[in-house]
Amino acid sequence: MLKIAVIPGDGIGPEVVREGLKVLDAVAKPTNLKYELTEFDWGGDRYLKTGEVRPEDGLDQLRRFDAIYLGAVGHPDVPVGLVERKLLLDIRFGLDQYVNLRPIKLYPGVWTPIKDKGPDEIDFLVVRENTEDMYVGTGGFAHYGTPDEVATQVAVYTRKGTERIIRYAFEAARARNDEKKVTLVDKSNVLTYGHDLWQRVFAEVGEEYPDVEKDRAYVDAACMWMVKNPEWFDVIVTTNMFGDIITDLGAMIQGGMGVAASGNINPEGASMFEPIHGSAPKYAGQNKANPIATIAAMHMLLEHVGATEAAARIENAIVKVLDSGEILDLSAGKCPPTSEIGDMIAAAV
Ligand code: IPM
Ligand code: MN
């Protein structure tokens, strides 16, 4: 019995999660998949009602699940960053989901803004470090609000944290396909301490993988190449902050926020799967959001827990629907109604 914690979250989260669960239900019978859902009302609305985003012992409740399925986080009436911290970042950090996996894969039939590039060229995996960097929340203010104010936000990198994410990337490159290449994306020409550590660890760990090609790119140049020559990439390994930024760019070249999914992985614990997009409050409750990214997150979830047949069926169904030409625009507000897209994919599994 697969035990899944469901956190629909804010904004369009509940609507897109509903479609993901619809597809899960559709795939369960033919693949004989047994699962149990437990829903959590955590997020901005709960905060407005009760003064807390989630219960104090929330993270412990999550630990007993095989996987976590998250919709979207971010509420316009809640102080900026609060839901992000209490829900998303606390789960990532607290459950030690140190890998943020973000496949950048253009499916056939999907429009990309990059001229002359197609599914053969746009197919790589970003392995984003997920528990360190400027996200740790180390820093502070001095002389707050005065002309002499000083603000610091410290980028923290540990050797252990750097080593485990880089090793994960090399393993992913071996498992993925025959290309077997890992590109380290950093800014070691300026971040001469933190990213010096990344470079040294990349070289050290890389020695254990003689069969995997190694490459390096500064993050600014990597942004250029993702657009100009996306086919150069197979697996990218990068820091938390840079991974956040380059995967929005990656989402755009793979067809937009409507399709981009991700997994927050703890290889030994509970992992969490979510679309890359935010809560899009302006579309909330209108059946206008594209649920494909969230359905693709369910595909990743099932693959991660070893339900390979169910996972493959969902991916094939997504591919089929995307390639059918029935969805002319993948963006929220312009795509077919949320529930209809869910129905199409559920029918195709
Ligand atoms: C993401 C989001 C989050 C991040 C925010 C909501 C905290 O942008 O998952 O990419 O920065 O990691
Ligand atoms: Mn982001």
How would you characterize this protein structure?
The protein has helices at 13-31, 44-50, 58-63, 82-94, 159-176, 194-206, 219-228, 240-253, 292-304, 308-323, 338-348; strands at 2-9, 35-39, 67-72, 99-105, 123-129, 139-142, 150-153, 181-186, 213-218, 235-238, 261-265, 271-275. The chain folds into 2 domains: 1-98 and 265-349, Isopropylmalate Dehydrogenase (3-Layer(aba) Sandwich), CATH 3.40.718.10; 112-254, Isopropylmalate Dehydrogenase. α7 packs parallel to α8 and α10 (308-323) packs across α11 (338-348). With 349 residues, it is of the alpha/beta class. It contains 11 helices and 12 strands. Manganese (II) ion (MN) binds at residues 244, 248.
Key terms for this structure?
349 residues; alpha/beta; Isopropylmalate Dehydrogenase; 2 domains; two-stranded antiparallel ribbon; binds 3-isopropylmalic acid; binds manganese (II) ion
Task: List strands and helices in order, with pairings.
Blueprint: E1 2-9, H1 13-31, E2 35-39, H2 44-50, H3 58-63, E3 67-72, H4 82-94, E4 99-105, E5 123-129, E6 139-142, E7 150-153, H5 159-176, E8 181-186, H6 194-206, E9 213-218, H7 219-228, E10 235-238, H8 240-253, E11 261-265, E12 271-275, H9 292-304, H10 308-323, H11 338-348
Parallel strand pairs: 1-2, 1-3, 3-12, 5-10, 8-9, 8-10
Antiparallel strand pairs: 4-5, 4-11, 6-7, 11-12
Helix pairs in contact: 1-9, 1-10, 1-11, 5-6, 7-8, 9-10, 10-11
3-isopropylmalic acid (IPM) is lined by residues 73, 84, 88-89, 244, 276.
